[in-house]
Amino acid sequence: MTTAPPAPDDRTSDDRTSDDRAPDRADDPRTADGDRARTPDPGASMRLREIVFGAAPAAAVRAAAGLGLADALGDAPAAAEDLARAVGAQPGPLRRLLLALASHGLFAETDDGRWAHTEMSRLLRQDAQGSLRDIALWCTEPWTWQVWPRLEDAVRSGRAVFPDAFGKGFFDYLHTDGGESARVFDRAMTASSRQAAADLAGYADLTGVASIADIGGGQGLALAALLETRPDLRGTLLDLPAVVAGCDPRLREGGALADRATVVAGDCRQSVPVAADLYVIKNILEWDDASTRATLANVVAAAEPGARVLVIENLVDDSPSMRFTTAMDLLLLLNVGGAKHTRRSLSALITEAGLRLGEVRPVNRHLHAFEAVVVK
Per-residue confidence of the chain (376 residues) as pLDDT tens digits? Predict the structure, then answer.
């Protein structure tokens, strides 16, 4: 750390007169505004320092994922030198990376100076159940480091900053210029959706349900997981043509669920041409409110009275994963100008659409289910 510059004249602070010497805050019980001077809490000070260095742990996780560090480390502890050879890195810098990661619970140093896995570091393995490797890469892609510094601009304007930074909208950029970033996005979304689909299948009460419509359901992972819970269920996947073209193989012709699944290309903001006992709407009501209203209105128009609607979303309040969900909310603002909901804001939109809202319950640590019924 650099020291303060010398005084502009030759006198030391002790040589100055009472007139030109700055008042000593330690001797003055009150500050200029009348508030009592307080010594900053050391814990708060250190926590703030950690927060402003938040890019460092994110970059460290990305480096570990890119190096394949978690895959190189087996079940037995290994020396940093051995890991460095395995991943093509220098031992000294790699050990520094491991120390940084270990301070956050990723990897652990043994008493003899070797390195072992922790529960979190195993999640960076490509072959791990519930692997977060691709999600870690996606959340730290190079473009993210260019939009996060513009958060102040987004907060002031209320608009996405991605178009200003890259000359086109977020998804246009991904599909035309994204390259490997687009492929990382696809893998990350698939990994996230697969885990959420499994959690949803374990959560959903399908009593009295014979047909399911997955609205804006992407590749149909949630629909497939629900259909696999009962052999008599039928389902429909609705999403944009380019999306459903890559739907889960189980739903395609010749797939294990094809005889019970229908794939429909369309935009749920325009229409929902599907009748079902249960409509599932997962993680798509984070656009602007006009799009959310249109989607919910189209579901109500297509449904019979008494049909159930299950809205699955991340919330930025009343959630055990507030740091995660609020971070996603800010990234949505930066990228597309979207927003995650509070329990109240989403409840209001659901009720406004003509749905009778029932329970709101957690599906997992970061997703909530809003259970509603169509009333006409």
Answer: 443 443 334 443 344 444 444 444 444 444 445 455 678 888 999 999 999 999 999 999 999 999 999 999 999 999 999 999 999 999 999 999 999 999 999 999 999 999 999 999 999 999 999 899 999 999 999 999 999 999 999 999 999 999 999 999 998 998 889 889 988 988 898 888 998 999 999 999 999 999 999 999 999 999 999 999 999 999 999 999 988 998 999 999 999 999 999 999 999 999 999 999 999 999 999 888 899 999 999 999 999 999 999 999 999 997 888 999 999 999 999 999 999 999 999 999 999 999 999 999 999 989 999 999 999 8
Residue 104, C-beta contacts closer than 8 angstroms, at least 6 positions apart? 57, 60, 120
- Report DSSP state, residue 23: P
User: How far apart, in Å, are the Cα atoms of 346 and each of 323, 339, 340?
Assistant: 19, 11, 9
Give the helix/strand (H/E) hosting 222.
helix 221-227
* Dihedral sign for Cα atoms in the order 307, 313, 317, 321: positive
Residue 93 three-state SS: helix
Helix ranges, 103-161 (H): 119-122, 133-139, 144-147, 151-157
Q: Are 312 and 281 in contact (CB under 8 A)?
A: yes
Q: Whose CA is closest to 218, among 171, 273, 277, 265?
A: 265
pTM for this entry: 0.81
